[in-house]
Design brief:
alpha+beta, D-Maltodextrin-Binding Protein, domain 2, 41% helix, signal, Putative extracellular solute-binding protein
């Protein structure tokens, strides 16, 4: 997931300096200042934003009309320099008026101790949307060492059970193939991961023969997201219920915890699969040098036939035109798959939104935060973060008691470009979306006002439209009549849901970090060498050498740390299931 998840850095020295300045600053004095309602510019320190500067467009107009505020984003992602921006602003004693950041690795508790964020409790009268998430704010308090107060609200909060999939129509991971070419070679059976090899070979041969283009490859890889391991190798492991925790691949149900260097383990299996694909000429030779954007362009141009994720292949290639022509990526019927799925998160994720201690007009800011957790706020602020339908009356309306997209909404939510009507401001719809990049609630959750999801792709009207395309019709006919990927996976027990618990990894000491740096470099480099080995003997020599080298570099010490974290995460998942079951039983008895 997606996954381009960002680990937020925590720097004790900067926060320690903030503690020294905290006693000298204005601190909470601004709470006593009367708000005259005049226009105010709000500094939003946002670790998730990919934009820096003042919010523009329709979302800016909406915030101005409702709160008479301008949002000015401070974004480490844009500013660069790692944690420098956080360090500098923390040391000055003022991180921002509104703060969006991760609370793991001790960061949340340090922000409280340094008096960089304020307890929102004095401002919560009438704030029903924040109050409805009391369980989530209490859980966050436990993580940051606070016994009372509302110091922040976590993102991605869900009203659904932690044992249901948190995704929408598609899982985060899955073996997606160019269905039109899979159809062209006769829908061959795919019993195991290894059975994909002859299928991909047939698809590649067919595509090249039809187009005369020998630059088409079944698979294309990239290095951008490599971390503790070769990221691309991890993805098929997710098809069998595994996800990563450092150097550990852990099953969603807690039944298995493997080192990525384990002989004949799942990582080993996928390395062999990739190597065999490469030796059959199925892997793009530019994989070792290209970045994600270059590879993504190849998907858009029909040059790659297999996708690790729906949000890559489908997003790039499944245009309305291609789907109407029966072309596009759909999940393959891999018979032994048990795909890892992230469960819904009743207590939210590991990022939070907080009130800066030096902010003016705190009541107005808390009203804004409360609005973000309202149904309207989820629709309007969630347009960037993966599927919220956007503003009512612009993108959608209610017809015969059900939500439906307007012509404008259908266009802009399916990749089209359009300027917003004058009453909504000015400029293009895309340029005006919220730059917060912070999902307050899961967009796959249900809007109590409509009875349907915040995500338009889950509406009956949109599912009906999607299934009317030749591509979807043919896929459904060959997948037991399933109307969606999730329906197919759930019906065939091919999904493994990791209960949606909020687990925050503890700080790792400098010794572990140093060892990890050396070990992961060896693993990543040797993994790429193994994928491009020219024989079984060369492959095995590289993989065996990787195990020997990493053992000598301190793999065991780091693995012990990661293994404990993986098992603690599993305990947290089991605990949230028990907690939710108990609260459900208590509610039923009242």
């Amino acid at each position: 997931m997606i996954s381009r998840r960002k680990t937020v850095m925590s720097v004790a020295a900067a926060v320690s300096m903030a503690m020294m300045f905290a006693g000298c600053g204005a601190g909470g004095n601004s709470a006593d200042q009367k708000d005259d309602g005049s226009m105010m510019t709000v500094t939003v320190y946002d670790d998730l934003a990919n934009y820096q500067g003042v919010q523009k467009g329709w979302f800016a107009k909406l915030v101005k009309d409702k709160f008479n505020m301008k949002l000015n984003y401070i974004s480490p992602n844009v500013a660069g320099g790692g944690s420098t921006l956080f360090d500098t602003r923390s040391a000055a004693g003022n991180l921002g008026d509104i703060i969006i950041t991760g609370y793991g690795s001790g960061r949340g508790s340090k922000l409280v101790r340094a008096k960089l964020i304020d307890d929102m409790t004095p401002y919560l009268s009438g704030m029903s949307n924040i109050k409805k998430h009391k369980d989530a704010t209490d859980a966050l308090n436990r993580q940051i060492g606070q016994k009372s107060g509302v110091w922040a609200i976590p993102g991605s909060v869900s009203t659904r059970k932690p044992t249901v999939a948190g995704e929408g129509l598609e899982p985060t991971f899955g073996p997606y193939v160019r269905w039109d070419l899979y159809k062209a070679i006769g829908y061959p059976e795919i019993n195991t991961l290894e059975d994909l090899l002859p299928v991909m070979k047939g698809m590649q041969d067919k595509a090249r023969a039809e187009s005369g283009d020998n630059s088409i490859y079944a698979m294309s890889l990239f290095k951008d997201w490599d971390g503790n391991m070769m990221n691309n190798v991890k993805q098929p492991a997710c098809y069998y219920g595994y996800d990563e925790m450092g150097f550990v691949l852990a099953k969603a149900d807690g039944s298995d915890f493997e080192s990525i260097t384990q002989k004949d383990g799942i990582y080993d299996r996928v390395l062999k699969f990739f190597n065999e694909a490469q030796r059959q000429g199925l892997v793009d030779p530019e994989s070792t040098t290209q970045n994600y954007d270059t590879m993504n362009t190849k998907y858009k141009n029909g040059k790659v036939l297999f996708s690790f994720w729906p949000w890559l292949g489908q997003a790039a290639y499944n245009t309305n035109e291609n789907r109407a022509a029966g072309k596009g990526f759909m999940i393959a019927p891999l018979k032994d798959q048990k795909i890892f799925s992230y469960g819904a998160t009743p207590n939210g994720g590991t990022t939070m939104i907080a009130l800066g201690s030096k902010a003016r007009n705190k009541q107005r800011l808390v009203k804004f935060i409360d609005w973000l957790y309202s149904s309207e706020g989820v629709y309007d602020s969630g347009a960037q973060t993966g599927g919220a339908a956007g503003p009512k009356d612009l993108n959608w309306t209610v017809k015969d008691g059900k939500p439906v997209l307007t012509d404008f909404g259908s266009k802009v939510l399916n990749g089209g470009k359009a300027n917003v009507p004058t009453k909504w401001g000015s400029g293009s719809y895309t340029d005006g979306i919220s730059q917060l990049n912070f999902p307050t609630e899961l967009v796959s959750d249900i809007d109590p006002g409509t009875g349907y999801s915040f995500n338009a792709t889950l509406w009956p009207s949109e599912i009906e439209k999607a299934n009317d395309s030749p591509l979807n019709k043919d896929w459904s006919e060959h997948m037991g009549g399933a109307k969606t990927t999730m329906e197919y996976l759930e019906k065939n027990k091919m999904i493994d849901i990791a209960p949606g618990a909020t687990y925050v990894q503890p700080d790792e000491d400098s010794r572990i970090s140093t060892l990890r740096g050396s070990v992961k470099t060896e693993i990543v480099n040797d993994s790429w060498k193994a994928v491009f080995a020219k024989s079984d003997d060369e492959f095995q020599k590289i993989v065996d050498g990787m195990r020997t080298q990493t053992d000598g570099l301190g793999m065991k010490q780091v693995l012990d740390f990661d293994m404990k974290n993986a098992k603690d995460q599993d305990k947290a998942r089991k605990a949230i299931v028990r907690e939710y079951s108990k609260s459900g039983a208590d509610a039923a008895s009242k």
